[in-house]
Amino acid sequence: MKKLHFILINIMLSSVLAYCYAQEKTVTFTTSAGVIKARLYNDVPNHTSVFIKKAANGDYNGTLFTRVIKEFMIQGGSPDSKNAPAGARCGFGDRRSEILPEFRNHYFHKKGALAAPRQNDDINPKKKSDMSQFFIVHGKVYTDGALDTLELIKNQPIRRKAMDTYYKPFKTELEILKKDNPREFNKRVVEINSKVDSVIRSTPGHLIFTEEQRKAYTTLGGCPHLDGFYTIYGEVTEGFEVIDAIANQPKDAYDRPKKDIRIIKVTIQ
């Protein structure tokens, strides 16, 4: 009976998940460089609804990719780019289109992530998203060792403080144990490391990549340093080669492509 109950629960959960994914909208970016398709996330409702509304109004149609950086991202949609003269600096967005962020820890900046740009913290302390434009992650592929290094650098201040608490006061005692009782020394070191790791994991702002993140960043690629700073509200499903083509365009000193890459239309299905 319990087994049947468990099976029924799994069937119900699968049905709910299937329904949720079925309701996700698909966005098609038709550009002068090719077509990019992405799905919009349901659990980032404000960003998704604003994006859909702006796309339906044609706000992004005719705009340019105004900032493209290889191994980083491609950014477009800004209203000031529609009639921008060749070589003119543009892509400043529209602060009237800002909305509060909707950070979701389970979304991260893998290649193809669709996200909202924003102004810097000094003039935008609430980290509001500028929905007048968008960016798509290009990124680069990392090795596991490189990700380990990023974790080490980010967590070093937390680790140092924890070591001051759990290791430094017992340093002399541990040095004696290391000579006289190596087995007890090893046991104490394991205990200390366990406490330090616990402190790191419980401290806000720490960095420990999940298995999903590691798999994505070491295969597809991305920009892990952006995680937690921008709202991601969708991901590309088709047209990764178009992202590559746009990111590799020759550009000027302000990262605007020398040859205009125009967003012909953005449609939602």
From TrEMBL:
Residues 31-268 form the PPIase cyclophilin-type domain. Gene3D superfamilies: Cyclophilin-like (2.40.100.10). Keywords: Isomerase, Rotamase, Signal. Its EC number is 5.2.1.8. GO terms for molecular function: peptidyl-prolyl cis-trans isomerase activity. InterPro entries: Cyclophilin-like_dom_sf, Cyclophilin-type_PPIase_dom, Cyclophilin_A-like. It holds the Pfam family Pro_isomerase. The lineage of its organism: Bacteria, Pseudomonadati, Bacteroidota, Bacteroidia, Bacteroidales. This is peptidylprolyl isomerase. Transmembrane segments: none annotated. Residues 1-22 form the signal peptide.
